[in-house]
Amino acid sequence: MRSALFSADNLEKESDQPGMRLQNSKMLKIELNGEAMARVGSMVAYQGQVQFQALGSGGVGKFLKQKLTGEGVPLMRVTGRGDVFLADLASDVHLIDLEPGDALSINGSSVLAFDSTLQYDIKMVGGAGMMSSSGLFNCVFTGYGRIAVTTKGTPVVLNVDQPTYVDPQAAVCWSASLQTGYHRAEQMGLGTLLGRRTGEAFTMSFAGQGFVVVQPSEEPPLMGSGQQQSGSSGGLLGGLLD
């Protein structure tokens, strides 16, 4: 049988070291020997002896409750020995290694998987989430380990050395040391009152020294009855909060 499909570029990438690595730009491979955390529904294939445990009530809960997001349980613990392949709607996957002393704030919609050695907390973005569909909360990761984040397209990394403003649905992750808030980008006037809007009423503001990663796409808006499309920030944070 012959096909370009079977070229070396598409064959499974092997390694002697356990952990996360990119199978390709759209797919994460975890060579599992222990446990890792991943977004529910992100597994596309696995080999070996692997178990998946949804994290519901009494799981990895923090001080806030799931009812704040109105979402289901989107996190799962992956344990065992084998190869696990993860993806999220063909989004680009990027790996970030955190070391002791690092702190990274991530929009929940962009978290695909992370090492269980990492610690995380749920933080409220000062006012920004209330003005957008990206949610009130973000995940702050610290410790030592690797995390896989997704972007819709090739992102840009902005160096925050002056006041910086980003659509809250396009902000992927940023230095946790930055001060965040919200900024009214659209000027109020007669046109606004008559219904003429720019579609950019509010942006997230960043100040201090650090970086912010911005994707060239906005997350889909909220759907009816408080539900969000798969992969939304509220969904992931619901599992973290439960």
Structural summary, described in words:
With 242 residues, the chain is mainly β. It is 5% helix and 45% strand. The protein contains 2 helices and 16 strands. It has helices spanning 190-193, 233-241, and strands at residues 19-24, 27-39, 43-54, 75-86, 92-98, 103-106, 111-115, 118-124, 137-143, 145-151, 156-160, 164-166, 171-175, 179-184, 202-207, 210-214. The strands form 3 sheets. Strands 1, 2, 3, 4, 5, 7 and 10 form a 7-stranded antiparallel sheet that branches. Strand 1 and strand 2 form a beta hairpin. The chain starts with 18 loop residues before the first strand and ends with a helix. Residues 62-73, 128-135, 188-199 and 221-234 have low confidence and may be disordered.
Secondary structural class: mainly beta
How would you state the average pLDDT, rounded? 78
User: How would you sum up the major sheet?
Assistant: 7 strands, antiparallel
Q: Which regions have little confidence, pLDDT < 50, spanning 5+ residues?
A: 62-73, 128-135, 188-199, 221-234
The value of Rg in angstroms is: 19 Å
Q: What is the H/E string?
A: EEEEEEEEEEEEEEHEEH
User: How much of the polypeptide forms β-strand, as a percent range?
Assistant: over 45%
The DSSP helix count reads 2
